[in-house]
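YM 10:42: Cytochrome C oxidase, cbb3-type, subunit III sequence, as discussed on the call
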Amino acid sequence: MHESYPMHPHLRRICLLLAITSSFGTSSALAADAGHGADLAKRWCASCHVVANGQTQASADVPSFISVARRPDFSPERLAFFLLDPHPKMPNFPLSRTEAGDIAAYIASLR
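YM 10:58: structure's back
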């Protein structure tokens, strides 16, 4: 019984560390500004994607933001990371991490 007592502070530290670490992921998602993301999407993404209700024109071969948001594997964090990585199908917009997070938060709000 006495041998398990010294482990207790270690377990407490591990739990505290896990709580702190997990809060970083959620705090960054909560800090994202979906309204700013909507503004950015309308300015930069609407030439190819349907980004909002009432938009009448977009490229036929790209998904709407609503369809992206409704994908079963959708994750705002993964989408933000995807937006930061240049790819051949999308124009290379110089997005900051904050802007990518804001656009991802806007798309998540469409679910």
